Amino acid sequence: MTISLDQLNAADAATFVAAVGDIFEHGSWVAERAHAARPFATVAALHDAMMQAVRAAPRTEQLAFLRGHPELGGRVARAGAMTDDSKSEQGGLGLDRLNEEEFARFERLNAAYALRFGFPFIIGVRRHTRDSILARFERRTGNDIETELAAALSEIGYITRLRLVAKVEGPGKPKTDGRLSTHVLDTAQGRPAANMYLELFEVGASARSCIAAAMTDAGGRAPLLASGPLRIGTYQLQFHVGAYYASCGVAAATPPYLEMVPVRFAVAEPEGHYHVPLIVTPWSHTTYRGGG
Amino acid sequence: MTISLDQLNAADAATFVAAVGDIFEHGSWVAERAHAARPFATVAALHDAMMQAVRAAPRTEQLAFLRGHPELGGRVARAGAMTDDSKSEQGGLGLDRLNEEEFARFERLNAAYALRFGFPFIIGVRRHTRDSILARFERRTGNDIETELAAALSEIGYITRLRLVAKVEGPGKPKTDGRLSTHVLDTAQGRPAANMYLELFEVGASARSCIAAAMTDAGGRAPLLASGPLRIGTYQLQFHVGAYYASCGVAAATPPYLEMVPVRFAVAEPEGHYHVPLIVTPWSHTTYRGGG
Amino acid sequence: MTISLDQLNAADAATFVAAVGDIFEHGSWVAERAHAARPFATVAALHDAMMQAVRAAPRTEQLAFLRGHPELGGRVARAGAMTDDSKSEQGGLGLDRLNEEEFARFERLNAAYALRFGFPFIIGVRRHTRDSILARFERRTGNDIETELAAALSEIGYITRLRLVAKVEGPGKPKTDGRLSTHVLDTAQGRPAANMYLELFEVGASARSCIAAAMTDAGGRAPLLASGPLRIGTYQLQFHVGAYYASCGVAAATPPYLEMVPVRFAVAEPEGHYHVPLIVTPWSHTTYRGGG
Amino acid sequence: MTISLDQLNAADAATFVAAVGDIFEHGSWVAERAHAARPFATVAALHDAMMQAVRAAPRTEQLAFLRGHPELGGRVARAGAMTDDSKSEQGGLGLDRLNEEEFARFERLNAAYALRFGFPFIIGVRRHTRDSILARFERRTGNDIETELAAALSEIGYITRLRLVAKVEGPGKPKTDGRLSTHVLDTAQGRPAANMYLELFEVGASARSCIAAAMTDAGGRAPLLASGPLRIGTYQLQFHVGAYYASCGVAAATPPYLEMVPVRFAVAEPEGHYHVPLIVTPWSHTTYRGGG
Q1: Chain C contact for D251, CB < 8 A?
Q2: Is D264's CB within 8 Å of C262's CB?
């Protein structure tokens, strides 16, 4: 169910809040106040106005708003007692079905954080892997209250930007999609490496394993991830170079010097383009971050 | 206890056999026949003469000689009832202390091979990883008898060459040592990458895990393996690039695009030089087989 | 003045010949015979039919047709007494205004070729540099008559394909355009190298010097040649890497290790895509043939 | 005619000055004063003591000393009326036989410099190409007197260090030799590129053209310059890759994509090691500054 920016610009307050009041978790007052700033030239301008309403709110109201968010990987998540958006976001990383050990770790982190700040830890889950969430959880628990309040509001910005983009159609949408792609060049034969099989793994202590697999096309290219933000974390591309050269009939040692070529890298900008090419011969390879 | 080639060239038959009669497993007759070909200009020539004696022997004698070798990973190995050389060679790969599952796999392979050829599977263990032994065991069990006899004698050549080189001092030793080395160049800063930590892993279904670790020297170099033959198999070098650039104060993303850089390759020539350099920036890397 | 394939398919013989009779130099009989093969599904099919008419003609007619072509760089070219198409093709390489030495060289080659074969040397000039024309002129003068006749007809194919594509609009045009492009990646900074100045030179004994210059765009890309066939020959891209890093404020030696980076390569396929990227730091660079 | 450091340490003042008094141009007083600081543990310590004597001298004496040096490329150089050391140093760059235009340029620079500072322009000629001398000549003429005096004394240090190292044998010689080398790896075939022909050119407005040529050895290596300092300036290595692959029988396009591969770089540290490798296939190449 989407609505157009034009419709929103023309809406009265009640209609406006009915349409986008749930973008901010249990915080329809944000939409109420943003309504006054109509018309919005772009979807990004609407989002800015809503964030401005949050930032302009009194501290007590901000804190109450933050307290309205569910714990990450906590009892509420397990019980499924969250807004639909939160369910989908946490569920995408499996945070609603942690095993006992993982659950206990989140419980400890949630308790320590709540004790220190008085509101739950908030993070734009869809921009993270479990490993990067755990790393930030631990780091941010050491913040002072002002720094952490700013961090929490910044994450609210990421979360609501994604929700808004999914709900409102119109010009000037803020950039929320990242992209991961590869391109394989065979410099032993001077042409793109077509039909090379490759896999993409997320790596890390609590990683989700193989998340994509592809065969390069006639131009040696393979799109890998293109919808939604990339997740901050560490990845490994695995290029099946040995099988490729065997299928081309290119002579190799026994066993071939290169069979599976791993390329490991980290994503730090969820909305960025990570182009990770491989320039390869049976005896060498080069990779670099392209895109950007 | 070594002996010089000069001493061997001057020795009578009894002394000669006493010195090098055990190079060929339970086959002192090989040394007896090679004695006649003295003097030898090089250690390699002595080895050639001994192999020539084996190849010139009647088929029945060759088969008896092959039957004198212990099974790989078999009961005899477990019981320690082998020549000292065989104990050391099999022990180096842990073939004398396999777990039950591994033991059962070798039992099956030994039985199938013996049924087909009537002598035990012979391979120069010190030139192999467990994975490459298992791969060759299965492949060679499919050979016809003439091909397999030639393969077994070729492996006898590898085994005895190593034993002879350890026992006889003199000119013209055959090449038995391989070498594995690396060199890291930092092309963001235009200089060798000094003090980068790196590890070498053997990889594969039954691999021995981390087999070397080193810090690059001021010239960016690290010797890794240099004594004895390399083992045919698959390896992974792991370069700790992220920590290196952090220690240099070079700016990076959070997390850094490159943290641990894996380089995976296979060794096919145990006596070769595998130089596996890394040319690296915080955003790219190149590797190739040097040496050779 | 173009005509559509549909119009040609509907045309009577006179109209047809009036429209495309001059595609083949002084050879309107080719169009006359091809007319019978209407309708043509594609422009390529029309061209095939015309070439088929040439190949099916009796030897004497073929030779008369070949003799109707002007000499390369000869008196006729100088005097401008050629068809408009020939003028434009030869003029594009300056073959109509050679200096005395060059003119003399072409005179000698034309004389030797004519003596041997009895018709003038024919080559698709727009697919060549002067150097590659001279190299082929000398090589082909050594051919036997059958090989050379085939070579001449093959070049007629290239020449007329280009003329036809310029004149006839319609589906299924044969590929006549090549493409040359570059892309610069700065792996010291992990991003495309924007605003790097670069030049493209043709190199060789009789080369035309700088033929393109560009500044890379925000994505590090620069299209260089995209219209018409590339010319077979040797090229040098010159990337002004020193100025780029100076403008980025990246520290360098005095003088910088890399100032102007030359990349020299040859084009062998005029209709191909030559993508010639540069992956660069202040201390290193990599290039390869992409595209293809 | 060399002398040992031991002999110098044992020498009386007259013998000491006779031996090393001419290291500093028309400045035997430098040796006289350094004599008192004997014994010297290293040749470097002797040089330091001599430079210390110069730096400790009164300004008028320093200026007189500087005035005792010949002009670069001036009338005195032309007439050959210089110390033997100066003749050899200037002659190595051809500064004693400039053509009229070059001579006039040096005359102008010498006149402007002398007018401003009252002493001739001094530079360690053996560490420079003509281009880098001219660049520094123009730049330094803009200095204030204190900066320029320091620059002149620093160059005196370079000049006399080379003279001293040539004359005195003993431990702890200061480093005066640079080194330029290359190494070619063929990653299409996974081995060093043996027997590849390559040339080294000095490039620039007044460059000396081809200064070395070599064939790579079996390991793909070629030492190029190893004796004396490198000259600050711009160089181009030219690797004959096309001929190499043709001799290996590796298939290529016609003409080959890579024929002669130029690698252009600048030397900024005359006493450094510039290792400039090429990692090459018929379709790609990589180079970087190694050594260092």
Answers
A1: no
A2: yes
**From CA A148, how far away is CA A139, in angstroms rounded?**
10
Give dist(CA C191, CA B10) in Å, integer.
71
Contact B257 C190 (CB under 8 A): yes
Cis peptide before A255 (omega within 30 of 0): yes
Average pLDDT over residues A19-46: 96
The backbone torsions φ and ψ at residue B113, rounded to the nearest 5 degrees and listed phi first, read -65, -45
DSSP assignment of chain B equals --EEHHHHHH--HHHHHHHHTTSSTT-HHHHHHHHTT---SSHHHHHHHHHHHHHHS-HHHHHHHHHTSPPTTSHHHHHT-S-HHHHHHHHHTTTTS--HHHHHHHHHHHHHHHHHHSS-----GGGB-HHHHHHHHHHHTTS-HHHHHHHHHHHHHHHHHHHHHHHEE-S-PPP---EEEEEEEETTTTEE-TT-EEEEEEESTT--EEEEEEE--TTSEEEEE-SSPPPBEEEEEEEEHHHHHHHHT----SS-S-SEEEEEEEE--TTSEEE--EEEETTEEEEE-EE-
Asked if D268's CB is within 8 angstroms of C253's CB, the reply is yes
The residue among D130, D134, D132, D136 whose CA lies nearest residue D95 is: D130
Q: What is the percent of chain B with per-residue pLDDT over 90, rounded to a whole number?
A: 80
Helix, strand, coil share (%) of chain A residues, nearest 5: 40, 20, 35
pLDDT of residue C64: 95
**Any bridge partners for residue B285, and if so which?**
A287, B280
CA-CA-CA-CA torsion for B198, B203, B207, B213, nearest 10 degrees? -10
Q: Does A266 reach chain C within 8 Å, measured CB to CB?
A: no
Residue B198 has which token pair?
């790196």
| CA of residue D85 relative to chain centroid, distance | 14
How near does any CA of chain C get to the CA of A35, in Å? 37
- Cβ neighbours of A190 in C, within 8 Å: 289, 292
Quote the CA–CA distance of B13 and C280 in Å, as a whole number.
Answer: 68
Q: Cβ–Cβ of B262/A264 closer than 8 Å?
A: yes
With an 8 Å Cβ cutoff, are C281 and B257 in contact? no
ipTM surpassing 0.90, yes or no?
A: yes
Predicted TM-score (pTM) of the model is 0.91
* Cβ proximity of B230 and B223 under 8 Å: no
Question: Do B188 and C257 make contact, defined as CB atoms within 8 angstroms?
Answer: no
Chain C within 8 Å of A272 (Cβ-Cβ)?
A: no
Contacts of C281 in chain B (CB under 8 A): 187-188, 190, 281
Chain C, chain D: beta-carbon pairs less than 8 Å apart: 74
Q: Is B118 on the interface with D (CB under 8 A)?
A: no
Which among D23, D71, D12, D39 has a CA at the least distance from the CA of D171? D39
Kindly state whether D254 is in contact with chain C, defined as any CB-CB distance less than 8 angstroms.
yes
**Residue A62 neighbours by CB distance under 10 Å:** 19
Residues in chain B closer than 8 A to D192 (CB atoms): 290, 292
**Which residues in D lie closer than 8 A to residue C134 (C-beta atoms)?**
none
In contact, D160 and D51? CB cutoff 8 Å: yes
| Cα three-residue angle D269-D274-D276, rounded to 5 degrees | 145
- Rounded to the nearest angstrom, the gap between the alpha carbon of residue B75 and the centroid of all alpha carbons in its chain is 23
Model confidence pLDDT, tens digit, residues B66-96: 999 988 887 777 777 788 888 888 888 888 7
Beta bridge partners of B237: B200, B263
Q: What angle do CA C131, C137, C140 make, to 5 degrees?
A: 135
User: In the numeric block, which tokens belong to residue B101?
Assistant: 């599952």
Contacting residues of C for D255, CB less than 8 Å apart: 132, 232-234, 266, 268
Q: Is C257 on the interface with B (CB under 8 A)?
A: yes
A69 noted as active-site residue: yes
Q: Give me D31's structure tokens.
A: 């040796």
For residues A263-285, give the mean pLDDT: 97
